[in-house]
Amino acid sequence: MALLITNKCTNCDMCEPECPNNAISMGDSIYEINPSLCTECKGHYEKPTCESVCPINNCIITDPEHIETDEQLLEKFVIIQGLA
Prior knowledge:
The protein is of the alpha+beta class and 84 residues long. 19% of the residues lie in helices and 14% in strands. It has a two-stranded antiparallel sheet. The longest helix is centred in the C-terminal third of the chain and has 11 residues, at 70-80. Residues 1-29 form the 4Fe-4S ferredoxin-type domain.
């Protein structure tokens, strides 16, 4: 399950530098998460760092368009890190 930044985003710049996969970047008006790079921090941390540092409640949610299992997220982590 990739994550999604909602329109509640205030562009506080907290999430982007915390993403270990560089999946977060500035979009047209708010930060966006690239679902092909988002592993919900699987392989890095116990929970997503972007959610941990975001000061807005429920600003970062599960992306309903990109549902993945923990196994799929870990496989993506291995590929992104070049461990495969």
